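Supplementary Methods S3. Complex input for the protoporphyrin IX containing FE-bound model.
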Amino acid sequence: MSASRPPTLSGPAVRTMADLPGPTPRPVLGNLRDVVRDGVPNRVLERWADTHGLTYRIRLVRRHILVTADPAVIDLTLRRRPDDFRRSAVMSNVIEEIAPQGVFTAEGDRWRRLRKVATQSLNVAYLRQYFTTITRVTDRLLGVWEAAADSGARVDVLDQMMRYTLDVTAGLAMGHDLNALQSTGEGLHSRVPRLFPEFARRIYAPVPYWRYVKLPRDRRLDATVREIEAVVRDRFAAARDRMATGASPANFLEALVKPIADEPAVTDEEVFGNVLTMLLAGEDTTSSAAAWSLHFLAQHPEIHRRVRAEADEVLGDRRLPADPATVGRLRYAEAVVHEALRLQPVTPQLVMQPTRDLTVDTRDGPLFVPKDTLMYVLLSYGARRDSDRFPDPDTFRPERWLDGGLPAESLPFAPFGNGPRFCPGRNLALVETTVVASVLSRAFDFEPDRTAGPVGERMTFTSFPTNLGLRVHRRTD
Ligand code: HEM
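Predicted complex, serialized as structure tokens:
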């Protein structure tokens, strides 16, 4: 990749966006209707890569977008941050209106500083302290599912996983026990999961009308953010008091409040933005990954039995893993999660922009990409299409991740991103999902429930399953 370079007569011809293939745009809306019609824009973009090649262009109303599934371009785009590429400004502006100053949307030096603080508070050392939260909430989840088994009630798997991850994330982010798993009616537990779809709606909106006039749904969004803000402010005061005593941080908020040597203190607004970022980034993604894992287990009884046998052996008499090292021994359950993320990636694409004019080497030759061009980076396309690396790619086969098989991730499989902005919650997410897959498989038999219709997929900001219901039965073997 090189800096701005106009096409020359010598060397390979440098293509421009206008030279790229792509689906024919319709008048006014361009390709927008085709992209959003079935609620799975990621799948539409992947199919177009099959037809038009790994790098192509689309138009959404007036925005011309470069779409790429080319591993070399993806690699460069992800690695050359924050200097040469940034997250899409449209997306970041929409999120910043709600969660300003968070690490996900920060750029440049502010991102460098916030990233350091955020990763430090999520690193493995802290994860050890967080482990009690995970086991406490998992125990609660087991209790709720035992009640469902005894009453014969249908389990809405995604809803359950959202409540589970919300309880874990609120505990880890700020030491708050939301108890979404046992809550009924309306509350933060029902409102937080609606934030992501609202982000997506605003990102794709042709006009940012909410800056001028608020619809009822915009007012509900504001009210939810104020509600979360009140909880964070309350916890913030307690965190400050505790850190002033010299105690070591027990949650993300406390870690933010405790100054890092040689780093300027994090401002109050940055604390709020980052706690909210953790709540959002940790809840929707992880719940979807856990839900898809349970879906595949329900579909494959032989794999379910193997997860159960592993849990029996590793956990012995204990209902829950005693420590992170024990979770590390649940290797087959973790392989189930990797395989679920491969077939049903939760974040199948990232939206980026170059910060300057660049020439990028694509598989089909050099391509000139002007500063600020919107780029849809398809993170998981190769995981379904690269049959050299993933033989029989449409088959759910966790064994491929074990015993000298595949390394956990590397392009073309990057479910947690790559490079310096790689997901800092990856380890936490894998612990949560592995524990859930293991202990639920151990305790229950799963019977798919299709009363709400066939299981489907939808993508708003992240991708998630629809109509995913189970009847669960206490194990009999
Ligand atoms: C299965 C679950 C998860 C998936 C699939 C996932 C995926 C991702 C992806 C693809 C990115 C963008 C990476 C990039 O730009 O290269 C990201 C960023 C991020 N994730 Fe996750 N994530 C998950 C769970 C979590 C959890 C549990 C947390 C924290 C509690 C978290 C916090 C973040 C943050 C703060 C960022 C922004 C990092 C930055 O911009 O420097 N994620 N995640």
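Residues 78, 103-104, 115, 118, 169, 277-278, 281-282, 285-286, 289, 346-347, 350, 415-419, 421-425, 428-429 surround protoporphyrin IX containing FE (CB under 6 Å). Residues 1-98+348-379 form one domain.
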